[in-house]
Write a structure and sequence with these properties.
The complex is a heterodimer of chains A (about 325) and B (about 100).
Chain A: H1 5-20, E1 34-39, E2 42-47, E3 50-54, H2 61-73, E4 87-89, E5 92-98, E6 101-102, H3 113-125, H4 137-151, H5 157-165, E7 183-184, E8 193-195, E9 203-205, E10 212-213, H6 217-228, H7 234-246, H8 259-283, H9 290-302
Antiparallel strand pairs in A: 1-2, 2-3, 3-5, 4-5, 6-8, 7-10, 8-9
Helix pairs in contact in A: 3-7, 4-8, 5-8, 5-9, 6-7, 6-8, 8-9
Chain B: E1 10-15, E2 18-23, E3 29-30, H1 35-47, H2 82-94
The chains are: A alpha+beta (about 325), B alpha+beta (about 100).
Chain lengths: ~325, ~100
Amino acid sequence: MTTTPLLTELTLRAGTEAHARRRTPSTCPCGATTTLADRPDATVVRHADTVAKAHAPDTDQTELTPRLTTATHLPDLLLPPLSPTPVDLHGRLVTFWPYGTPVDPENPDAAPWEPAATLLARLHRTPAPTHLPPMRGPAKAALAVARLRDATSHPAVADVLHAWSALPAWARAEAPMPDTTTLCHGDLHLGQLVRHPAPDGPWRLIDVDDLGVGVPAWDLARPAAWYACGLLSPEDWARFLAAYRAAGGPAVPADGDPWPALDIPARALTVQTAARAIAKAVAADRPLDEVEQAVVDACGRMGSTPPQLAHGFPK
Amino acid sequence: MQCPKCHAPMHTYNRNGVQIEQCSGCRGIFLDYGELEALTRMESQWGAGQAVPPPPAAPQYPAQPVAPAWGAQHGGGHYGGHHGGHHRNKGFGRMLFSS
């Protein structure tokens, strides 16, 4: 990995911030600062119990700040930042967080489906703070599709674009969402949960970049899409859904078929996942792997079944 | 399991060593992944006059949650077995942890 000025500076700042949290820096167990993520949309480093995150280059501070404030005010649901105000570093907004222990990707059986569902249900039931921007789920799906359009002539692109075109305007970020009051995470996946305090504190949601008001079913739609694509077992999906319902989550009706509410967001997230998978495979000049193909195949099947309309149950 | 069409209970029957589920209501039949091929194979072997080895018994499994019409075939109760587990573990490590 090439070390960029941003990564170097972020590493330095993470160490400084970690030491500042202690009365005497010499009590810091120190050790090396580790890079947790270094992607175009985020660079994240850890020093001891402190994490520094450089947000995406196009992040709007007037939108990020109310999202950070929301996390500060809901520490039982969202990991609170060390400070609710981002700092500027090489033109990037940077925030500091306490370190939490993530989900272990090597241990599927230990995935916290029930805690994830319960946190989402409680989040969705929490009155949204005023001035919170819309949840960014549809916007990110639209971005992935736009990049697919620009980037490639892969044979699977037509099915993915066709599935996308069948979605209603709100799911393609071309119209406001039908729900503008429910507090949503906006980008739920298993990388968005940590135990805090590490290593065995309660689970909390992280990454507020997409947090906002919107359609809460979007937050359930990734597990729903994984289940629909055959990547998540019926048992794990049933556990997740049952826990969400048991916690009084409003995104789906309390019983009966949840798919009228889930269908459109699950389709959108399947399209988003397929679009990213194709773009990655093309960039790496490799064929789609088995999992990527399963997601692309699901887009193909969407062509023969029009989206379900969510109606007939209260929000 | 429950019938996905009329929701009546389904009962398991053994047809030439292949486990099939038949609905007690609408009489519709549910085949696990590979069972149609197993039945077809036996039919052709029957025609050729060959002996039919009994396939291994299908495991019992609970009713599956509702899935959309565009969803993948989950392979009946074989999830977590060879096919499902393979798919799931590969997907889990990567797909379930990224935006």
